[in-house]
Amino acid sequence: MARTLELLQFLGRLTDDRPDPADLWLAEHLAGLPDPIRTDVADWVDVPRRGDARHFPKSELTWKNYLLQALPILTSWARQHTTLRGVTRDEIITALQHPTPRGGDGHTRLTALRSLFAFLKARRRIFTNPTRRLSRDLTRRPQPRIPTRLPEAAFAELAAHEPDPAEWLILVLTGHQALTAAQIRALTLTNVDIPNRDFDLGGAHRPLDNLTHAAIARYLDYRHRRWPRTANPHLLITQQTAHNTEPVSRVWLRYAVRDRQATLSRLRQDRILDEAEAVGIPDPLHVAAIFGLNPDTAQRYVDAFYGRTDSSAPG
C-alpha cells in the first residue's frame, strides 16, 4: 500500500486526505503544556520538521528526538511559567545539569533548547535569548573510566516494561550478546542462520543460544508480517528503512531503553563484567574470545572486577 501511494503521488494522481500521523503525535505530546508555551513549541518544531527559507527539513527521528529531549524541561517550567518569556538563564543551567531522562550526555538537549530559544528570539517572542553563549561543558558528564555493574533497580525497571519484538531483540543483542550499536546496525539477514542456530559476526561464528534464538525468531516473524515485501537486507528495520536499504539509526536503537536508567552501553558493560565474574579467575583471553574484544579492552574489564594484579599497578 505504501509503495502504491508513493507511485500515485509521483504521478500527481493522489489526493491524500488522511490525518498526518506526525500531527497526531505532536498534539499528543504537547497536550500537557499551557497554551502559550504549546503554541511556541509547536511553531518551533515546525521548522526542523518542514524546513523554511533558511533551513532544510530534518528527519522525523531528529525533530522528534529534539522535542522528546526538551519536553521534560518544558513540562517542569510550565509549573512556574505560563510563557517561555520568563525563563531565565539560571533556570536553563539548572535544568541542563540534571541527568537526562532519555540517556546521553545532554548534548542533544542543549542543542534543542538553543534552537528553541533562538527561534523565539528571531520571531521576537522573547526579548533576549537565555541560551546564548552557554558552554557545552554544562552537558558533559564525566564518563567512568572503569566499567561498572548496573544496579538491580535498573534491571527491575526494564523488567517492568513489556518490550515489543524489536525492543526485546535489541536488549538481548546488547545485554546478552554484548554487541555494540554499530554491530547491531550492521547485522543483516545473512548473519543469522535460524535452522542451524548460527550467528555470524563479521566472520566470527557464535552458536545461537536459546534466548537469542527465540528473540531473533520472534522478531523475524514480526518483521515478515509487517513488511513482507521489503528489500532491506538488514536484520532490524523500521517503517522508514523498510522502503530502502539503509540501516536503522543510533537514535532509533536508543528508543529501546528510552526513559530508563540502563543505557545500551551500560547494559553491554554489565554483560561483559558478568562473564568476567562467571569465569572465576582473572582470564582476559576468555573474555576477549567470548565477545570478540581487543585483549587490552578485555583486560580492562577483568581489572575492573578483580582489581589489577600486575607489577605495574600503582602502589
Q: Overview of this structure, please?
A:
- With 315 residues, the chain is mostly helical.
- Among the domains are: 20-139, no CATH class; 162-259, no CATH class.
- It contains 14 helices and three strands.
- The protein has helices at residues 2-10, 21-30, 35-50, 60-77, 89-97, 107-122, 152-159, 165-175, 181-186, 210-226, 250-254, 264-279, 284-291, 295-306; strands at 192-193, 198-201, 204-207.
- InterPro entries: DNA_brk_join_enz.
- This is Integrase.
- GO terms for molecular function: DNA binding.
- It comes from Streptomyces broussonetiae.
Report the helical percentage.
Answer: 40-55%
- Mean pLDDT, nearest integer? 86
Query: pLDDT under 50 segments (min length 5)?
Result: 310-315
Biggest beta sheet attributes: 3 strands, antiparallel
Task: Report the portion of residues in β strands.
Answer: under 5%
Count of separate DSSP helical elements: 14
Write the H/E string, N to C. Answer: HHHHHHHHHEEEHHHHH
In terms of quaternary structure, the protein is single chain
Q: What is the first-to-last residue Cα distance?
A: 68 Å
The radius of gyration computed from the alpha-carbon positions, rounded to a whole number of angstroms, is: 23 Å
Taken from the alpha-carbon principal axes, the silhouette is globular
Query: Strand tally, please?
Result: 3
The largest sheet has its strands arranged as 1-2-3
Q: Find the structural class using helix and strand composition.
A: mainly alpha
GO molecular function: DNA binding
InterPro entries: DNA_brk_join_enz
Protein name: Integrase
